[in-house]
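Hey all, quick one. A colleague (J.T.) asked me to put the pyridoxal-5'-phosphate job into the tracker so the inputs and the structure tokens live in one place instead of scattered across chat threads. No bug as far as I know, just bookkeeping. Sequence used:
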Amino acid sequence: MQQGRHFLQIPGPSPVPDRVLRAMDMPVIDHRSAQFAELGRAVLDGSQKIFQTSGPVVIFPSSGTGAWEAAIVNTLSPGDKVLMVETGHFATLWRQMAGRWGIEVDFLPGDWRRGADPAVIEERLARDTSHALKAVMVVHNETSTGATSRIGEIRAAMDRVGHPALLMVDTISSLGSVEYRHDEWKVDVSVSCSQKGFMLPPGLGFNAISDKARAAAKTNKMPRSYWDWEEMLKPNVNGFFPYTPATNLLYGLREAIAMLLEEGLDKVFARHQRLAAATRAAVNHWGLEVLCQEPKDFSPVLTAVLMPPGHDADQFRKVVLDNFNMSLGSGLSKVAGKVFRIGHLGECNELTLLAALTGVEMGLSVAGIPYRAGGVDAAMKYLEQRPQGNSPAH
Ligand code: PLP
């Protein structure tokens, strides 16, 4: 048993703030009561502010994967064609799920080192003159690689070619950490969950829904029951759920939304960018390589770091866990053993980040990995030289 606080430095689940833990430490209440309805409406209204939408948001007792499925089964029909982009492991999993639902996926290949390229999407859509593609489905922040996709630019590309496909975006590891505008970017379905930027335990899945997506749900042919938006939206009007909701997670959600809005979303986004830039300063100083190669796509949420050849990332993570009581994210599927991931999201500030980077730097030394000492100093210098709230150009 190691002493002191465990450093949960994976890119989600992220550490749950004490304020949120305290807010959840409540008796379970009757989910058909007036008291619950107040909580229900508060979290549904509050969630709209985080997605930056005036349209409905539904909250499922589910993981993010469930919310992915909800987006598919409410809008598409078996045999539909969609465009997806291979940004990494999670885009690949969403693609597999779409395939299991009988969707034909045009999967734009990627090298897992950048976000989706709006120009490539534009070119593909321009060729689809018959509008066979029913949706463009993109992961905003690819948690397996630390690369974000520029959703505003993808929307602009879709508009330029006048393509009517739905735009569906996985904001699972970006919402509440990276700038995101559901309405302004005319996203049709935004998919998210509780355990990343919302700083909650796992267990809630979200769909923010545009009018166009809701209209598609009226005519699409996919069977569904638990995930059916309309079943949710009817009782949601009065703050209720069609089945037993995750009451105590909703208490936590109300508190987490309050925290995000008190800090101010712009400040939250700037804080994440700043901590991410400080992390990259450390990684660059160590002489290690950041997996994401496109500076415009550097993730504010996590940094995936490539191990030098001949060194195993999982062995390194074990050294860090055993010696310094810190969990780093593993490499997933194609990059397993090749990268480790440093999460810097949610309840994270200068000092917790520097402690995490110190654990990484000591781990490099203990594990006998070649590196240049002084990465933490480089991160400190970065943070000292840039006053808070100053969002760095990435
Ligand atoms: N999409 C992204 C971008 C993710 O990071 C994750 C999980 O980390 C998922 C989807 C799947 O979410 P969950 O594990 O909550 O089902």
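Adding what we noticed when we looked at it: The longest strand covers residues 133-139. The mean pLDDT is 97.
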